[in-house]
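User: Show me a protein chain along with its predicted structure.
Assistant: Here is one chain, sequence first, then structure tokens.
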Amino acid sequence: AVSDIVDEDTAMILKKEVSDGIVAPGYTPEALAILKSKKGGKFIVLEAKADFVPDSVEYREVYGMTFSQKRNDVVITKEHMTKKVVTKGGVDALPDAAVRDMIVASICVKYTQSNSVGFAKDGMMVGVGAGQQSRVDCVKLAGRKVSTWYLRQHPKVLGLKFKQGVKRQDRVNARVRYIEGDFTDEERTRWEAQFDTIPEPLTTSEKEEFMAKATGVTISSDAFFPFRDSIDHASKVGVSFVAQPGGSVQDPQVTTCCDDYGMVMSMTGVRLFHH
């Protein structure tokens, strides 16, 4: 989804990325021609109407029963992130860049299957964990993605020497598997065949040393953290800022945990469940 008219430069970037479709408020003729040719003409191109207003009530049908609820039409703003900062230092400890990332992550989890959490850094999402029964499992799922994103910047990953002719997406996949490292014997044989010289492994200690430098990541949750375990795990992937609705009897424990790690936490008062 793109929030502005798609131009030729944007279309050229999207042409190389793996995706099935796009929705945007408009397209330049050059961009439309490029996108229409993607996937052999099967790439879905949708134009959104700027004046469309969705119904105020949403419906879900399950085995002949219809459920209805008011649509979540809350507009997430800076005020949600700054009105109740409960950790040491208060709102003065919350930089503008963190507020931006809190908003970005919260918008993401608003439209993501609950339970969900999202990690953001530098104005972009770097990990999403959704649809889990346990909130800490959401954090662990998304946290693995954050770790992979960070470790793709490790010198040994950046220095991988592929054989000529290895496709772009195959290189992306190979880097991820190099970071993960848990190959089957058959998988390892196929992975090693992509290189002229088989790379040295990226060791656990090298990963931990690199990840220890991670910082400035924001996590947002669609509902309150019921225990401190989510914060404990988030600390392992560079989280410095936390946004969550609050409202749990464990809020004081979670706040203390954030203070223990030097994190800044905002309680937005806005629950963002999506089912």
